[in-house]
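User:
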Amino acid sequence: MAKIADKYFKVDPWMVIEEGFDPDHGMVAESIFSLGNEYMGVRGYFEEGYSGKGLVGSYFNGLYEETEVKHPAVYKGFVHKSRDLTNAVDWLHTRIKLDGELLDLAKSNVEGFKRVLDLKKGVLVREFTWHTNSGKKLKITFERFLSMAVHNLGCQKITFEPLNFSGEVEILSGLDFTVHAPWWKDSNWDCLRKEKHENIFAVLGKTRRSELYLYSSFRLDGENITNCQTVEDERFLGTQFRLKLIEGQTSSYTKMSVNYAGKKGMTDPEFIWSKGMELAQKYKEASYEKEFEKHVSYWDNVWSNLDIVIEGDPENQQGIRFCIFQLHQTYHGEDPTLNIGAKGLTGEAYGGKAFWDTEAYCLHFYMFNNPKAARKLLEYRYRLLPFAIERAKELDCEGACYPISSIDGEEGCGAWQHSSLQIHVSGSVAYGIQHYTTVCDDKDFLYREGIEMLIQICRFYKSRVQQDPITAEYGFYGVMGVDEFHMMVNNNCMLNYMVKKTMKFTLEVIEKMREEASYLLNEAAQKTGLKNEELEAWKKISDNMYIPQDKRTGLFEQHDGFFRLPHIDIDSIPVTDFPLYNNWSYDRIYRTDMIKQADVLMMLFLYSQDFPVEIKKVNYEYYEPRCIHESSLSPSVHSIIAAEIGKDDEAYEFFKFATRLDLDDYNRNTCEGLHITSIAAAWLNIVYGYGGMRSDGKELIFNPSIPEAWKSYSFNLLYKESVLKFTVSKEQVRISAQGNSAVKIVVYGKEYIINPSGEVLEIPLFKR
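Assistant: Predicted structure:
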């Protein structure tokens, strides 16, 4: 593997620590120290202002701005408009002056800089001592958290300790709607209303083109605050005040910000304002300390039930907890109108859009940690089914073509080769429906929303599939698979297999519904216009789908002609060439057998129980040397399969890559935001890789193993209303179940009924 770690942050089992500030790592640190609560998120920027390179990123899930996509030539099916996550109000905005000198870490003289993200409590703390030009020394501590208990609430606390003087510090605190990313020429916001009600400062903003609304307010609490003056500008409202300081004593103030986002379909600004003010009044007396207690209580519950513990590997202990922390921050099922953006709420790369990653990677995590959230992710797809149907029409097809990249249900990818050729997204949605309803036994969803989506997805693929004129087998021509380094290919193996499985599953569901819920089937058939001849066509296509494979060796060909592509030694590519999209011409990327990410191997992971270990081994050994892992989604899949086929050293190296991808900036692009969906893949890496779990069949299967470097590890899963607890040591596996009933699973090929007293099993020699 050509990529190497950039070690910068200190290792701690429960914290991410930065000691001393390095501007060259500034934007990476901003991403790493991001906070969120599904509703809103902020990067780890310096709220006091910073004239160096950085991104003041404050985001609200579902708030976007619309831009025009310009093409040199326009053809049917091209996307004309894109909607991208937009920077919103900087509710943390602070400016600090002492003796007329403005604090700015790009210019000011500071010592003892330390920044800590406490994963256990969900709070970011930063401190340093400021040496002013006048010789004064002022220690400042910044704290912030976004409440997991009250999603509209963001909280800030700033503490001052004068070390060699008494006096006053001048502070400006407010709501700033002027901030924007460098690629936006200006802020995307206009402020329609600014008011001060008693101690509440409130602003109503509106995006200029998409016309979405955001109410934001704050109030300050603290002793020794004097000389308060309201400060107002076109897109700013705040207060300037002085804080009395006494040498050797600490003085602090808190800022409680209440925000209410008016998303797509909420077009009445008066309603947004009144709802925001109602919330602000509700939390008018809320204290930083009490809200922090509620917030910490949420995290206590998360960690007590769903922690992963690794003994003997402190770096990856920190790494996996960082991943779990970010997943819960990004999404935990509060709002079914939201999905999981590739960067979450940690940066604006990918425009806040969701991809196929949600069902292929993230859904696994939520099914076994928060099944209600898993259902809501699929309900999101159901709610946006009409957009998928319209997209299919734009591509001269029928049924539902889910977008490769979207923040609101409409295709938002302006690159035609992705938006028109990457048609595996609908198959990924179908896979998610099958996977979720099988594991969580949710027939209610399957027989109501799920079946409707499945019918429209099968209809789309039927209208897009074509027959080989010689063999009469079915396949897909002119597509781009999961591996985005090869475009306009024929018969991508994973796509063909995914469609085959989708149609087969849909037919099985329809047959079961005839027996168990015929009235619901009739409703779905009437709503979708389903005809019997369609079912016959789907069966014919599924039975005769072309799957490119060398029957003699078992090796799947990624797509027609892949085996004849020129080879490139990926280890010869210098690390300075990454990311390749930034340093190689576009056509150069497409001319070899180098692949961006797991494609055939992804198929072997998603449908693991369909393939024997020998097939996985031969395909891994062929494709692993050709994969450059330019997608963050790729290393974990390689690690999972490597662990299964006994390549322990490789499995561990890929595991480290996946788990510390952002912490160690392997892809040299953490500055753009965290790789949220690949963070879910890191969780997969432990549970599916070393835990050996397979959940794509009718039985839940486990084949635990343990890396040589570890003493033990443990993980928990929510399954069948019980918590399955696994502890794996060098020689034994301990399994117990706590919940309403015993749980049936398969371990090392043998069926067990797991209850609270549990089972202790010996690890087979070949797994040690």
